[in-house]
Amino acid sequence: MPFNAPTPNQEQRASLFPPLHQLDGIRLEYLELDAELAKSGATLQFQLAALRGLGHEASLLTDDPFVDPTSSRSFIRCKLPSPPLPPPTHVLDIHFTDGSERYRVAVHGLLWALQCPPLSHLSQRPEVPASVPECENSLLLAVERLDIPCRPSWPLLHRYIYDGSPAALLEGLLKAPTASPLTSAKQTALDSLSMRLARVREVWIDAASLEMSDPSLWKTLERAWAVLIADLQEEVAREPSSREGHEPV
């Protein structure tokens, strides 16, 4: 693991946000782009901004993949989005390695290819087998497996991939966890801070597994970690005096 979030049961001390190994990032010349897009000369940043503005997830029509016997590639039929939204290009079959959960989602492959080097091959939509009949208002999308280490905080990173908003990511990282009515009375400030630190850690691990090199992403994670560590140290320093004030005389 890259680092461990402090917990109330262990000695509290200043914890530095772990340095990330040098990541190369994405270069357009290494991607297989559609001919029209390649000729346009659009920069990576321009393409990413345009895709984020149109980002959406289409509905899958079936969970049963069709396997092309000539290529052994799996395809799933997907409902076409309403115009003028562009159609998705792939189905991500996401497996979470910290448990048994998985789900499938239709995506724009180029949006992921521009941000995640291990998914650079998603820059073009694979050809649909000629043996598959066309179906009105639907299209066949290739299935790509994606292993993600941490399930609990994945929605934060998934949303960031689509909106690229450091402010929204920071808000999600710092937001106090929602406690059920049965546990809210017992939840301490230390518990809440430790859960949020674990949240930052999980997003770090997921982003590192995708080799994301976006500086804004890593600066936001580092900022959230620093804020929570400062709050944690303040809370730890306050607890002894708080306990002394409630001791019977």
Could you please describe the fold and organization of this structure?
By secondary structure, the chain is an alpha+beta fold. It folds into 2 domains: 26-148, no CATH class; 151-242. The chain contains 7 helices and 5 strands, in the order ααββββαβαααα. The protein has helices at 35-40, 44-54, 109-113, 154-163, 166-174, 189-209, 215-245; strands at residues 66-67, 74-79, 90-96, 102-107, 138-148. A 5-stranded mixed β-sheet has the order 1-2-5-3-4. Helix 4 packs antiparallel against helix 5 (166-174), helix 5 (166-174) runs parallel beside helix 7 (215-245) and helix 6 packs antiparallel against helix 7 (215-245). The longest helix is centred in the C-terminal third of the chain and has 31 residues, at 215-245. The model is unreliable at 7-14 (pLDDT under 50).
